[in-house]
């Protein structure tokens, strides 16, 4: 899960925080800052990408939406239909999970062959953080394998990650035979078009130059989550839980 910087509340020409009449009015600015990617599964999307409320605007039992949540820039991310519907209106306790806008979620989640997503087993991650990584995976359904019980094939996240993993591995082998600037740029363009930034970052984890390009190519990636003096390995995020 890509660690992102959503940034401060957008302001109008007079320097005042914009009052969003509807939460959908924040969509354009979120896309401009973060790219057209689901903040959770990292799928590349266009029209179906929606403004996501980290804390649900209408939690269970609420008679109507809570305005302080519904129109709060600091409660917004972007999400695809699958992540959005899996997460639903569960009234999350923020500190029980890791979040892409607060933590280094790439450091705490592990991407592997077959498009699988699990909590990292790296020894630098303590058990409490591992638990929170597991919680955000379950909350958004990144561990779902819908192939057996989804005849409509509406949730394509696992299949798309798997396909992207295979493409990334293939072009990495091709890059080894054609290690040049043009080919590197072509890979980055492909990564931007496919999405699943964490898959690309994992496959190219031993190539600091490619990591640098991938971090810079996806809008809003938290550069401070990577050690620029040590091969861009993921490091704990300032102010975050991990
Ligand atoms: Zn998603």
Explain how this protein is built:
This protein is mainly α and 242 residues long. The protein has one domain (23-234). It is built from nine helices and six strands. It has helices spanning 27-34, 67-70, 81-87, 105-108, 127-140, 157-177, 181-194, 197-203, 208-217, and strands spanning 50-53, 76-79, 109-112, 116-119, 226-227, 233-234. A two-stranded antiparallel ribbon has the order 1-2. Strands 3-4 form a two-stranded antiparallel sheet. The chain has a two-stranded antiparallel ribbon with strand order 5-6. Strand 5 and strand 6 (233-234) form a beta hairpin. The two termini are 13 Å apart. The model has no long low-confidence stretch (mean pLDDT 96). The protein binds zinc ion. Residues 38, 40-41, 43, 79-80, 82-83 line the site of zinc ion.
Map the helices and strands.
Elements: H1 27-34, E1 50-53, H2 67-70, E2 76-79, H3 81-87, H4 105-108, E3 109-112, E4 116-119, H5 127-140, H6 157-177, H7 181-194, H8 197-203, H9 208-217, E5 226-227, E6 233-234
Antiparallel strand pairs: 1-2, 3-4, 5-6
Helix pairs in contact: 6-7, 7-9
The structure holds zinc ion.
Zinc ion binds at residues 38, 40-41, 43, 79-80, 82-83.
């Amino acid at each position: 899960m890509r660690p992102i910087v959503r940034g401060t509340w957008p302001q109008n020409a007079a320097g005042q925080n914009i009052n969003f009449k509807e939460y959908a009015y924040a969509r354009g600015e979120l896309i401009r800052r973060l790219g057209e990617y689901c903040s959770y599964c990292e799928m590349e999307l266009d029209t179906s990408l929606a403004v996501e409320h980290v804390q649900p605007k209408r939690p269970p039992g609420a008679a109507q939406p809570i305005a302080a949540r519904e129109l709060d820039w600091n409660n917004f991310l972007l999400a695809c239909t699958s992540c959005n519907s899996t997460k639903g209106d569960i009234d999350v306790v923020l500190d029980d999970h890791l979040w892409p806008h607060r933590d280094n979620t790439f450091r705490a989640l592990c991407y592997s062959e077959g498009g699988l997503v699990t909590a990292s087993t790296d020894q630098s991650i303590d058990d409490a953080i591992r638990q929170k990584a597991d919680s955000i995976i379950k909350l958004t359904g990144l561990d779902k394998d819908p192939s057996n019980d989804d005849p409509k094939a509406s949730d394509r996240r696992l299949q798309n990650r798997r396909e992207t993993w295979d493409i990334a591995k293939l072009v990495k082998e091709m890059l080894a035979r054609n290690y040049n600037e043009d080919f590197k740029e072509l890979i980055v363009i492909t990564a931007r078009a496919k999405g699943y930034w964490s898959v690309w970052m994992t496959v190219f984890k031993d190539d600091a130059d490619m990591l640098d390009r991938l971090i810079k190519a996806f809008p809003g990636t938290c550069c401070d989550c990577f050690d620029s003096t040590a091969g861009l390995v993921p490091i704990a995020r300032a102010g975050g839980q991990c």
